[in-house]
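Recall the central idea of this unit: under ordinary conditions, the amino acid sequence of a chain determines the structure it adopts. In this exercise we apply that idea directly, starting from the sequence alone.
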Amino acid sequence: MELRRHPFIHKLLSLGLPAADYVVAGSGPLLAHGLRDEVTDLDVVARGDAWKIATSMADPVRAPSGHGFMVLLFDGGIEIFDRWLPGGAGVDALIDSAEVIQGIPFCPLVEVLEWKIRSNREKDQPDIRAIAQYLRRQTRR
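Accordingly, the structure predicted from this sequence is:
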């Protein structure tokens, strides 16, 4: 799949965020690996210049997790956070460990799996199974 053709990816790239200062988190990495055909939005974790650009476009609001702030763009289609979920890697570690796919930084699936297991939400169960199966296949290679 050509990621740049996906509407949310296209919108994200239109922001001109420096790739060294953000990472696509949430379910976006499942899209990048072909484990999902669609996502309802893109969650992005940003620092430095990427966060400055985001906050120049809209005022930050408290993140739903209560952990940090977020900027909603494109009617909520792009959610840019200044930190990610509590109990996980810090912003710098998350961004610096990004897996670049088609020029776009994504959180590694191992990280995504950890968050989804920790969150243990019903809606995450299919993703947990898909990621675990994908990672097992990769390990066998």
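The chain is about 40% helix and 20% strand.
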